């Protein structure tokens, strides 16, 4: 998935292309009902060099998080530059705010098999993760996506920033914004929330 992340030493953006994310759901396990629960999932947002920004997942209802999402389709995913050599090359700890993180929250949606988007997502996933083609058919794998409601970026000291969906889906527009854009958006968003 391609995430727009403005970094302190790159004031406009940097593309973070990952093939996996941490996925947080609300647990349905009998031992921890209602607790946050995290798994790792492979994903794709489109064909190579043509990402859409929409996170597509290849899921089964037999999976722990798949069971959670049947009961509550609210989900959060996270990707970080700590997954690359970038932060290590700067000698930044993964928890250092400058080691960029993108946290996306939204609704988990099963895509109907009859939809052209289903084939698009499946082809994108299989291109990035060829072994998925051979996963057991009896497990009922299907293509799902996250309908994005909130994007949070943490890439600097001073707190996280909230990115409007239109800026997430059209990151090229960000090159015309000043480096403090995300901070300003965060303040506007927080002020609006208190009105």
Describe it.
This protein is of the alpha+beta class and 195 residues long. It has five helices and nine strands. It has helices at 64-71, 86-89, 116-128, 165-169, 181-194, and strands spanning 2-7, 10-17, 20-26, 36-44, 56-59, 74-80, 101-110, 142-154, 161-163. It has a six-stranded antiparallel beta barrel. The chain starts with a strand and ends with a helix.
Break the fold down into its secondary structure elements and pairings.
Layout: E1 2-7, E2 10-17, E3 20-26, E4 36-44, E5 56-59, H1 64-71, E6 74-80, H2 86-89, E7 101-110, H3 116-128, E8 142-154, E9 161-163, H4 165-169, H5 181-194
Antiparallel strand pairs: 1-2, 3-4, 3-6, 4-5, 5-8, 6-7, 7-8, 8-9
Give me a quick take on this structure.
With 195 residues, the protein is of the alpha+beta class.
Shape: globular
Low-pLDDT residue spans: 1-16, 173-195
Instruction: Give the % helix.
Output: 10-25%
Number of strands: 9
**Strands ordered across the widest β-sheet:** 3-4-5-8-7-6
Q: Please report which band the strand proportion falls in: under 5%, 5-15%, 15-25%, 25-35%, 35-45% or over 45%.
A: 25-35%
Mean pLDDT metric: 80
- The number of helices is 5
Written as H for each helix and E for each strand, in order along the chain, the element string is EEEEEHEHEHEEHH
Strand count, sense and closure of the main sheet? Answer: 6 strands, antiparallel, barrel
Based on CA atoms alone, the radius of gyration comes out at 17 Å
How would you classify the helix and strand content by structural class? alpha+beta
Beginning-to-end CA distance, first to last residue: 34 Å
